[in-house]
Design brief:
Length: 379
């Protein structure tokens, strides 16, 4: 369970995660930033600079990268299903490695969350159930109805993950994180609100976890178990997700993942925001108030906890052995030197411009300054 250290654990310990030795326990969480070519999904020089600026993180998890055109649906999102995309990513991995960093690709299929207007194809899902959302007045909005995947579709997508993993390996990634969170395809199979199939891929917990575990096996075949992780949101509500018994569902899944000896599991804490107030689902905190604590002793490998952490609360989580590592999202947007600031106790840049999160271009992406101790300000 992470590294076994005689001294008190801290965010700055070197730690073994699967086959990879990390310089610290601070992880850069995967964040969608939409800076790739909208037509090709090829990463560019902006990505090279963005990720290399943050290479002092113990581990970088990239933005979600689709395994197929139909699995994408986010204009400006990078992919990993063409040679050109892999070549773009190779420039990123080389730049991160030159700075001594470690980087995993977050590999992804959007499922019913993919946008047919962008992909030009009907989205796929375990069941033909659309995403439902609510406007500011509480009026329900219904998204496009996806195609319920046939067994042949399922086999095809597993192979797409396998082939994309091969491209990721060619691109020089240290490993992969399967995106099994936030209402995308893997998550849609796991939870019973979105998976209402009657065959061996639906119904029981074992059946609903079958496809995700088949994908994990495909990734392991390419990278090895010690270089494969997964992100999960047991009680996340984003994109109309819900499971009637998340403790049972995820205890089973995490037990199976333990048996496969994968490198890590990243678990998101409840983070419902305004969304839950406009749906009939109960808040995630009512089901599992503390996700990492709930599953700490279920998954026997390295555990990463995510969502809403600050440096002090993250340090406390490590000290109290709630998790082995902590992943940060927003703090890495406006603090490319987050690790150095944490070590040196330098002040954090606590301002960011939300309008630039997904806007494309340099602004709000690669132009946040590092801290200059000589001038006592960022520069």
């Amino acid at each position: 369970m992470g590294s076994c250290l005689s001294h008190e654990k801290s965010l700055f310990d070197q730690v073994q995660v699967g086959d990879i030795t990390l310089s610290n326990r601070i992880v850069m969480a995967a964040m969608t930033r939409l800076r790739a070519d909208p037509k090709t999904g090829v990463p560019n020089d902006l990505h090279v600079k963005y990720y290399s600026q943050r290479a002092t993180a113990g581990l970088i998890l990239t933005e979600c990268s689709a395994v197929s055109n139909v699995g994408n649906g986010l204009s400006g999102s990078a992919g990993i299903y063409t040679k050109e995309q892999a070549a773009g990513w190779k420039k990123v991995t080389q730049a991160v490695h030159e700075r001594g960093g470690k980087i995993f690709l977050q590999i992804w299929h959007g499922g019913r969350a993919s946008d047919p207007k962008i992909s030009g194809e009907t989205s796929l899902a375990p069941s033909a159930l659309p995403i439902r959302s609510y406007d500011d007045k509480g009026v329900e909005q219904v998204g496009p109805v996806p195609k319920e995947m046939t067994k042949d579709d399922i086999k095809t997508v597993v192979e797409q993950f396998r082939e994309s993993a091969k491209l990721a390996k060619e691109a020089g990634f240290d490993g992969l994180e399967l995106h099994g969170a936030n209402g995308y395809l893997i998550d849609q199979f796991i939870r019973d609100s979105s998976n209402q199939r009657k065959d061996e891929y639906g119904g029981s917990v074992e059946n609903r976890c079958r496809f995700p575990l088949e994908v994990i096996d495909a990734l392991i075949e390419v990278f090895g178990a010690g270089r494969v992780g997964i992100k999960l949101t047991p009680v996340g509500r984003y994109q109309y997700m819900y499971d009637s018994n998340p403790i049972e569902t995820y205890s089973y899944l995490l037990t199976k993942l333990s048996e496969k000896k994968i490198a890590f599991v990243e678990l998101m804490e409840p983070n419902d925001g305004e969304y839950i107030k406009k749906s009939h689902f109960k808040p995630g905190k009512e089901q599992i108030p503390h996700v990492a604590k709930q599953f700490r002793n279920v998954f026997k490998g390295t555990l990463i906890t995510n969502a809403g952490y600050k440096l002090d609360t993250a340090a406390k989580a490590i000290k109290e052995n709630i998790a082995d590592l902590v992943s940060f999202g927003k703090l890495f947007i406006n603090n490319p030197d987050l690790v150095q600031r944490a070590i040196k106790k330098w002040p954090l840049n606590d301002k960011w411009d939300f309008t630039t999160f997904f806007s494309g271009g340099e602004k709000g992406y690669i132009d946040y300054p590092t801290y200059d101790p000589n001038s006592n300000k960022t520069s």
